[in-house]
TrEMBL record:
Residues 98-207 form the LUD domain. This is LUD domain-containing protein. The lineage of its organism: Bacteria, Bacillati, Actinomycetota, Actinomycetes, Kitasatosporales. Pfam families: LUD_dom. It comes from the Bacteria.
Length: 209
């Protein structure tokens, strides 16, 4: 008998005859936000800003110019384009378009200035964006290596108020990436450093029809 078997045997002996665990009570509130799409949108905007994301609102007619302006302001020489990204989002961008490829190395991704993606959901109460690798989102690595991420959220279809509401709509079998603001950390003296394990700058575009 190896060490693992001995440990498991002791666990089984310790719980032998123990009563069944009681059922989990799930009578908590699913959301703390009024069921008002405008209020949910405003809360998302507020919490995204609180996490130091830069938030912009536009519609289908204005998204091309907005994204082009964000890339130009960043001085982007290139932008990474995931498969399925609506072409109108980058129709006015003057920088080079780099397609997301399986063969791309970390060094090649690091040489790209910015990345534009969609998302799966945005959670208002936590100011969180969720990506699941679906259309317009690409592989997880493309949102972790470039220093600038522009994420487009469709309003109101991709916004939920709370995490429980998000979990009900997400597929746990997909590669979920949860983003709350730019990548950041702080040391023991609480000096904040951004761009540690992901983009230093996060622009969120709230896209209305």
């Amino acid at each position: 008998m190896n060490a693992r078997d001995r440990i498991l045997a002791r666990v089984r002996a310790a719980v032998e005859g123990a009563p069944e665990a009681p059922p989990v009570v799930r009578d908590y509130l699913v959301s703390h936000t009024p069921d008002d799409p405008a209020a949910v949108l405003d809360l998302l905007h507020e919490n995204l800003v609180d996490y130091r994301a830069r938030v912009h609102r536009t519609d289908e007619a204005g998204i091309g110019a907005l994204v082009a302006g964000l890339l130009a302001a960043r001085g982007a020489g290139s932008v990474l384009v995931p498969r399925g990204l609506p072409p109108e989002w980058l129709a006015e961008a003057a920088c080079a378009h780099v397609q997301d490829r399986v063969e791309s190395t970390a060094a090649e991704l690091d040489a790209v200035t910015s990345v534009v993606t969609g998302c799966a959901l945005a959670i208002a109460e936590t100011g969180t964006l969720v990506l699941d690798g679906g259309p317009a989102q690409g592989r997880r690595r493309i949102t972790l290596v470039p220093d600038h991420h522009i994420c487009v959220v469709r309003v109101p279809d991709q916004i939920v108020a709370s995490v429980p509401q998000a979990m009900a709509r997400l597929d746990p079998g997909r590669p979920l990436t949860w983003i709350s603001g730019p990548s950041a950390t702080s040391d023991i003296e609480l000096d904040r450093v951004e761009g540690v394990h992901g983009p230093r700058t996060l622009d969120v575009v709230l896209l209305s029809p």
